[in-house]
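Journal club prep — side note

Before the paper discussion, L.F. wants everyone to see what a predicted structure for a comparable chain looks like in token form. Sequence:
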Amino acid sequence: MRLEDYWGIGPKTSELLTAELGTERAVEAIESADVRALVDAGLHRGRATRILRRANGAAAMDVLATSDTRAVYDDLLTLAAGYALTDHAADRIRVLTPYLDRPEVEERLDRVVAARDAWSGLSDADRERVEEAFAEYDAAGGTDRAAVETALALRAVGLTGETFDALDALDDDRLREAAEALGDVRGSIDGDDVTVASGADDELDRRRERLDAARELSDAAFDVLEAVRDGSLRDFEALKSATVDHVATETGVEPATVRGVVPDDALDAADFVSATLRGLVEELETAVEEREATVAADLRDRIGDADGDVARAVETVSDVAVDLSLGRFAAERRMVRPRLVDDGVAVRNARNPFIDEPVQPVSYAVGEHALDADGWDGAGRTGGGRADSERPPSGDRVSVLTGANSGGKTTLLETVCAVTLLASMGLPVPADEAEVGTFDRIVFHRRHASFNAGVLESTLRSVVPPLVEEGRTLMLVDEFEAITEPGRAADLLNGLVDLTVDRGALGVYVTHLAEDLSPLPDTARIDGIFAEGLTNDLELRVDYQPRFGTLGKSTPEFIVSRLVANATDRSVRGGFEHLAAAVGEEAVQRTLSDARWSPGEE
């Protein structure tokens, strides 16, 4: 396959990769998602990651139907990569893509959940040992010996479960013998070109020292000539004897060995000394190569029957690093295995992965779901009252989400998007319970601040085509009213809700215009998020859990109350108090009273 056949690789990139890696190695790096190889060849890490995502999951990347969906996807993988135990594991996590086949999703979930449970079952001391083992593996550059020693460390802490079956098949005694032998090798023991490490063999070390000394003399042949030539040297034999003695003394080589390489046809004294030194270097190079081959053969014999275990350890440690890194991510984020269903998204006590805890979890659903009624206990509850329904009706195709400014509506959309993407990649999700369907496209569209025809057109071009394509689509759209006048925005939103239902898609649409909408289809509902006042610190107090089947209110009096309370300039405060009268002075005063604030406080 030509390099330019891969997405994102043009002539210049192809030329670079061919020059640095060769075509065959470059193709291998792309097919195996080896980010490090492409980065070492000169590509920017971000670009290398994008190329590998497309190369290994081009069709699956179409699930990310908008730039906002892709942004959440990027942020999720960046977050997960932060829990990686090795640099290579981080690279492999960054190139994960959604799966299109349910069995692949289930298979990865099996591995990651097993790794999560294994990580959770380790003591703090054992977790530290695992982290140290992988850190040493990384620092050693992932050599065969480092892989073997890491495999021994992982076996020692007792990692169990399906994810670690390959570790269970290894033999400790063989690995230890192999580790000792591999410690005497620089690089791989495979192949004929083996470099034996210093300290592995005393005789080899002596030969190398003599070779280094001979090379140093050869590079300074003129100085050697000056050292051996003085006024007492009247003939060639004297020069020859002085040269042999000097070189033998400086290199530690036996004089007989030096005499064995002296030339018979030197043109003059300078040529004689230079030729002698070149001959000695060649003689010693041969001696080193012969000894190194003998030692390498002995090392191979020492490894012996462990060859298969070493190869399995190298492969297994790399794979375990990825799964255990994802398991660590899931464990430390308290993530659970989602139930994979045909249709719908339902979460109980879901947490936005991008917000630091503590955070109020939310429960929500759209489409078909079968979470137990008890699973929704507390969902839809606010204060001392109850929403119209404690759980969203199963089967609603669309929800229109309304409510308070800064009430977490966009955060809820982002949470649903993140949960759906994580599940599509075969990863646990940040919730107490979740059901997630399979989607061909996920359309997440954040609110835009601009208000012009260009933004309206680009928004419609972004959200409508994926909605009308064949397959299942999840629509998560935020505040259409921000891109056109409210009346027309309500018309457009009505049209999108109807189209979503007609196309058999699912949708959550955030708006402040719910009261302006025409009657919704039977399979659509309105949910609301409510602000409940201000805290003593004048922060907005919001119940982020939507009330199902209830129209939310924006409650501007809370915002105006905070502005009144925070105003330090008398005239500015007067202006805000004028607005307070417009939105309901009594409500503002009641809010300030509940927040225990009185005029004149700062």
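L.F.'s comment for the group: The chain has four domains: 1-98, 100-332, 339-554, 557-594. Keep this in mind when we get to the figures.
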